[in-house]
Amino acid sequence: MQKTVRIVIIEDDEILQHAYKQLIEDEPGFYVVNCYNSFEAAEKKLVAEDPSIVLLDIELPGISGVNAIPLVKKMLPKAHVIVLTVYELEDQIFSALANGAAGYLTKDTSSAKIIEAIYDARGGGGPMSKKIASIVIKSFQKNSDSPLSKRETEIMRMVSEGKKRNEIAEELFIELETVKTHIKNIYAKLNVNSRSDALKVLKQHRVI
Question: Which residue among 32, 84, 125, 165 has the highest number of C-beta atoms inside a 10 angstrom radius?
Answer without folding.
Answer: 84
